[in-house]
Design brief:
The protein is mainly beta and about 800 residues long. About 0% of the residues lie in helices and about 50% in strands. Strand 23 and strand 24 (about 260-265) form a beta hairpin. The longest helix is centred in the first third of the chain and has 4 residues, at about 25-30. It is globular. The relative contact order is 0.12.
């Protein structure tokens, strides 16, 4: 055992030695426990990962994605000229809903943090110019913050909240910029539901827009003006209608003596206006300016005689313009500028997002955010900027992926992008990519796939892939293909399929395929077949009467799983073994007896197989009359006997499991509510390891890589770490023992471990006989109240297998 921590401390005359041992290898204690916290430096994807293969220091990933990139979620400072991220800036722990310069070269940021109840609440923070976080600024809003507006000594905060920094404030507040404490200023915005979405400042007047019915007890429909000194509402009252959700007002901008108002309305200031209008700041009446967009307005920016707007429109200012347009401030007609972002903005986010397509102006540039992948004919992901003099797109390209950019701010040569994205400075990779297995960074390998990759299998230097494919590289391929693992060059191998392929495996100089098909390369085969490396179909033909989900070759047998009940000419419900040469069913014939309390079981569909220590582990679902139920079991390979099974109504899950993998002395399976579970392979009981994910996330594949476990699927956050679709769990960090003398004279032994890591605290007086005292998970403590001065007592902590 490796000694990790060694303390030599006095104890009432004699001394106490505390030794903490941590088990790190299978040979020592049977189970090398993984950390429940995934790495935060491994690259991620912007779509689901279905296949993983580790070889030659690389992790090959396949799935349905368009890009890969470094983990950097929710918010990051970038260079305002080229978009290169400053990865030394503070990491953000939730989607950024608003950001603004703080006036001292730093940033004020509102981000949404989700609690155990699943409800998001905004917290405010301040990042200084030296990248450090101001400890004064850790402000709870109790709700969602949609708008921030900073002045020389205060910051105005708008959103949907009832308190901020512990003080009652209804949806609008002003905080002291130095102390972060709420000022007495309190307009109190009311209604049901209510939210302040936009703020604009002109002299001593603060304009606010959103969805509300009163301000300071005075009736106001979603648009009002308050005095910045007193907080009193003014008489200005344009009354946008209808005053219902979605918010009538989402965007505000001052233009001379007018206020430009955007949102979702049909009248304002006493005139019919659709979604975008100019209202006099003097009397509240609408001017004659009337661009009349045919969709909602999301954001507005004013530059001299031009009004820029984003929204869900396809026409605005009398011209066809998609989602982004420039409008003449005097005439209300669209200018010739037409960047046409793709895909277009079709709906506006309602909750946890301030803007779906934010706009800001800084100096001589217009910055645009959103979820587009192309704008002005150039590849840009989530963010772009334009030269205001020429209207041309600049080289600025933060390339945000796995989400969208919802907030923007800029000051000089620095910009800040915030939103729900998972990565910046990524690179295009369609369906296939290779990452360094140590650093997690991509390499140049880039075959490119049209479709979805579901399985990867390697033979020599050739990587075989299956999925829903139509093209690989520049070559047409239907569901099966092969590429060179070094160059990415597409091989000529590609037998045509007469149906769907669900499984792929390499054995006996052949590629074995399973799925739901009637032919392959023109040869009749029913749901399972073997193809040579030269593309010819082998005579091997066991046949399965229903579709195949998984293939696992071991020695001279290939284990087959799926929805069938006949395989290789024999009755084999759900799973069976087939001889690799003859195609005949082997004697392996496990019995699955599904039980679904309160329902009627109609059969089993086994979807995943893995093997360890003479046992076959199967996972899938039980088909009931009213719903499907999860199923996981262990069978003896020699006699087909059931070792254990976990059926519906038992301790985890309510859906089919797809991902299953052995790693060290545990079996890992995906689980709907807890993301992943580690099972004891002998008993099927859960191990004390639980990396929590958000509900509804799915694990599709798992593969060991050295002392880590790599997991792919369709997920976002795991234990608070944003790991979009790809997570790497390293070994658990070594624990620590600590000692504290309590007021009553007792000694408190503190065990500091990662969450989920189980440890037993033991004591001895002679180092030959250790007595267990307490076993627990994570961090805990034990109070030694023994007043005996001698003999000396020694303690150690051991991680449990």
């Amino acid at each position: 055992m490796r000694q990790v921590d060694h303390l030599k401390l006095p104890r009432r005359g004699p001394f106490l030695i505390i030794v903490f041992h941590c088990v790190l290898s299978l040979q020592q204690f049977g189970w090398s426990q993984l950390s429940s916290m995934p790495r935060d430096d491994f690259w991620i994807t912007d779509g689901e990962v279905n296949a993983l293969l580790v070889t030659n220091g690389l992790v090959y990933i396949g799935g349905y994605f368009q890009n890969v990139g470094p983990q950097r979620a929710f918010g990051v400072e970038v260079n305002a000229n080229n978009g290169v991220a400053d990865f030394g800036s503070s990491k953000i722990d939730g989607p950024v809903t608003a950001v603004t310069p703080d006036g001292s070269s730093g940033w004020l940021i509102a981000r949404t943090v989700f609690g155990a109840d699943g409800i998001g609440r905004s917290r405010l923070m301040r990042v200084r110019t030296d990248k450090s976080v101001d400890p004064t600024w850790d402000i709870d809003s109790g709700g969602i913050v949609y708008a921030l507006l900073a002045t020389a000594d205060r910051v105005y905060v708008g959103g949907g909240f009832a308190q901020i920094a512990g003080s009652p404030r209804r949806n609008l507040a002003a905080l002291d910029l130095a102390t972060a404490q709420p000022l007495q200023w309190d307009p109190s915005v009311g209604g049901e539901p209510v939210q302040v979405r936009a703020l604009a400042l002109s002299g001593q007047t603060l304009y606010l827009g959103g969805a509300f019915t009163s301000v300071g007890g005075v009736v106001r429909n979603s648009l009002a003006a308050v005095d910045v000194g007193t907080g009193a509402v003014t008489s200005w009252n344009p009354r946008p209608e209808p005053n219902v959700l979605p918010p009538p007002v989402r965007a505000l901008a001052v233009s001379g003596t007018n206020l430009i108002v955007g949102g979702h309305f049909t009248s304002i200031g006493g005139s019919f206006r659709t979604n975008l209008a100019a209202v006099s700041s003097v009397n509240g009446f609408a001017t004659s300016w009337n661009p009349s967009p045919d969709g909602e307005i999301d954001s507005i920016a004013v530059v001299a005689n031009t009004i820029f707007a984003t929204g869900t429109f396809a026409n605005i200012g009398g011209m066809p313009r998609t989602s982004l347009a420039a409008i003449d401030a005097a005439l209300g007609i669209a200018t010739a500028w037409n960047p046409s972002p793709t895909p277009p903005l079709q709906t506006l986010e309602r909750i946890y997002v301030s803007r779906s397509a934010p706009l800001i102006v800084d100096g001589d540039r217009l910055f645009v955010g959103g979820s587009f992948t192309n704008i002005a004919g150039q590849t840009r992901s989530g963010a772009a900027s334009f030269d205001l003099a020429t209207g041309g797109i600049t080289a600025w390209n933060p390339y945000a992926i796995a989400g969208q950019v919802n907030s923007l701010a800029a000051q000089g040569d620095r910009a800040y992008i915030g939103g729900s994205f998972g990565s910046v400075n990524g690179v295009p990779r369609r369906g296939l990519a290779a990452l360094d297995s140590t650093s997690g960074v991509e390499n140049s390998w880039n075959p490119g796939v049209s479709g979805t990759v579901v399985t990867l299998a390697l033979s020599g230097e050739t990587l075989y892939l299956r999925g829903s494919l139509s093209q690989v590289g520049s070559q047409p391929r239907t569901n099966l293909a092969a590429v060179d693992i070094a160059t990415g060059q597409v091989a000529s191998w590609g037998p045509g399929m007469g149906g769907t392929v669900n499984a792929l495996a390499i054995a006996a100089s052949s590629v074995y395929v399973g799925g739901e098909f009637a032919s392959i390369a023109g040869q009749a085969r029913t749901n399972v077949a073997a193809v040579g490396f030269d593309g010819t179909v082998r005579s091997w033909n066991p046949g399965a009467n229903f579709w195949v989900e998984s293939l696992l070759p071991i020695g001279n047998v290939i284990y087959v799983a799926g929805a069938f009940d006949q395989l290789g000419g024999q009755s084999r419900p759900g799973v069976g073994g087939v001889d690799l040469e003859s195609g005949l069913a082997t004697s392996f014939n496990p019995t699955i007896n599904p039980v679904v309390p309160g329902d009627v079981a109609r059969g089993a569909i086994i979807q995943g197989l893995t093997i360890q220590g003479g046992r076959l582990f199967a996972t899938g679902l039980i088909v009931g009359r009213f719903r499907d139920y999860p199923y996981t079991a262990s069978f003896d390979l020699l006699n087909s006997a059931l070792n254990w099974e976990i059926q519906a109504g038992q301790w985890y899950g309510r859906r089919a499991r797809i991902g299953i993998s052995p790693f060290k002395n545990a079996i890992y399976v995906d689980e709907l509510y807890n993301f992943l579970l580690a099972l004891d392979p002998t008993t099927g009981n859960p191990k004390p390891w639980l990396p929590g994910g958000w509900g509804g996330q799915k694990v599709h594949v798992m593969v060991p890589a050295g002392d880590s476990l790599i997991v792919g699927g369709s997920f976002g956050m795991v234990n608070g770490v944003p790991v979009s679709n790809l997570a790497v769990f390293p070994p658990a960090r070594a624990g620590k023992l600590g000692l504290q003398t309590m007021n009553n004279g007792s000694l408190r032994i503190q065990i500091n471990n990662e969450s989920g890591v189980q440890c037993v605290l033991q004591s001895t007086t002679n180092f030959s006989s250790w007595v267990p005292i307490v076993t627990n998970s994570g961090s805990f403590y034990y109070d030694d109240t023994n007043g005996t001065k001698s003999p000396a007592i020694f303690y150690r902590g051991l991680t449990q297998p």
